[in-house]
């Protein structure tokens, strides 16, 4: 930020830094001839820390409005500079290049509104500098300050322990709000120790059908920009072979176990639920009514309210006392209505989103890159869709939400939690980062610290609109 003394024809430069080390680097880079200019620096670290705005404030107190302030930097700082300059009757110009998008006037994404209420300019065409007195700061940056304080719980030794509360007293206790998404973690990966599950709150199996399934023909997966398309087709051993050969191995990891069940008919879901509901070591069932990669059932149940109610009611009847999670598809017009219907039918929680239907074509061969032509898109590309749908579902239901879709970092997980989720599931990220669960766990603790939260649920639904 520069500060212009017109009478003495000097410039005074004020620089703010986050840390002492950054401040030292600034000093080394910007030492100037004392006869021509003055450089002052400050960092936010330490008891005497502050910002460049603090330096400006001290200078303007004795300036009597004679000088011109010119500022560049983050938008929060610019708004504060504008307010300070106005307070002491100094002219002020701010550089708003931070909001510039295309840079050539095409997108109109860098609008700057005037406080006259009728004028709009654009940074790429009319800027980047603007008279700070003309800018309508509230219309441009309405979310610069926190207008609602976070409601904080009591301090606890277990800040990441969560209990998902279902209907009629059913509960699912988790040591951590992080789990794997169904279909993205196998026994082989677990037994090899490849995936660090030390901070996982639960383990979720791949989808189980009543009978063995070979799955879809190859190719089953292809990479896309910021994601991948898959069409595995729920390959698996079938219910009884799973119970005979795999169940005890899953239980050996001493984590709450969630069994994902699926089918093509209501009866398929009922059979699975009835067989599994009596096994007390199974913490919950996840009813998958959202898989896009099978010929019948699956996603079809999750796209119509009546069919959602039908299949969820059937499973609830077959597993009266088991905690029931219903996994929803994003491939619907109104996710809130489907979520409400799942709740009415007996769901204790909902999980969303499953993959988004998509396709990709090899332009050299003119063939689809997936044998089944259309598959399910996952990865970072779908996270904004997931966040929106979790937010919408959270407004519609009282039961807990387990969020998934493009989660790779603690920031991704925190977005979902702030949108209303009680827990999160990691899918595609497990394929490339075996430490992703523990990284998200540690990162969430840092985000909680940033907001002064004592428990992860302090962040739940804390989005400020």
Task: Kindly describe this structure.
The structure is a single chain. With 465 residues, the chain is α/β, with parallel strands linked by helices. The chain folds into 2 domains: 2-140, no CATH class; 162-458, Aldolase class I (TIM Barrel, Alpha-Beta Barrel), CATH 3.20.20.70. It is 29% helix and 22% strand. It has helices spanning 20-29, 52-60, 75-87, 123-126, 137-140, 187-192, 239-251, 266-277, 305-318, 335-344, 383-396, 410-419, 436-451, and strands spanning 2-5, 10-17, 37-43, 68-72, 91-95, 111-113, 120-122, 129-131, 162-165, 171-174, 178-180, 203-204, 221-224, 227-230, 257-261, 282-288, 323-327, 349-352, 356-358, 361-362, 367-368, 375-378, 400-404, 423-426. The strands form 6 sheets. An 8-stranded parallel sheet has the order 11-24-23-18-17-16-15-12. A 6-stranded mixed sheet has the order 3-2-1-4-5-8. Helix 12 (410-419) links the parallel strand 23 (400-404) and strand 24 (423-426). Helix 2 runs parallel beside helix 3 (75-87). The radius of gyration is 28 Å and the shape is elongated. The two termini are 31 Å apart. Residues 2-6 have low confidence and may be disordered.
Short description:
This protein has 2 domains: 2-140, no CATH class; 162-458, Alpha-Beta Barrel (TIM Barrel), CATH 3.20.20.70. Helices cover 29% and strands 22% of the residues.
